[in-house]
Design brief:
Length: 92
């Protein structure tokens, strides 16, 4: 049986949702500035977590996960801003 890393799986699915949000914001809402920011930070979470798995040392592993955590905080900020500015609602 192949072991699946829950962090990598969830961050990949989250990134796919962020890409769909980017498409929605840019096509439907004609929003370009924040949508570009959120797609960068939202897809970077999983990319850094995935890179951490292949870290060359424990310190490298931890550093990559810390970057992933920072990108998570940034993404949360953009999501809150989109919600407060009316681009997305609570359900979205």
């Amino acid at each position: 049986m192949i072991y699946k890393n829950p962090l990598l799986e969830k961050s990949l699915h989250f990134a796919a949702r962020i890409v769909k949000l980017y498409q929605y914001l840019s096509k439907e809402k004609k929003e370009t500035i924040i949508s570009k920011q959120i797609v960068r930070s939202g897809t970077s979470i999983g990319a850094n977590a995935n890179e951490a798995v292949y870290g060359v040392s424990q310190a490298d592993f931890i550093a990559k996960l810390q970057i992933s955590l920072k990108e998570t905080a940034e993404t949360e900020y953009w999501l809150r801003l989109l919600n407060l500015s009316g681009y997305i609602d609570d359900k979205q």
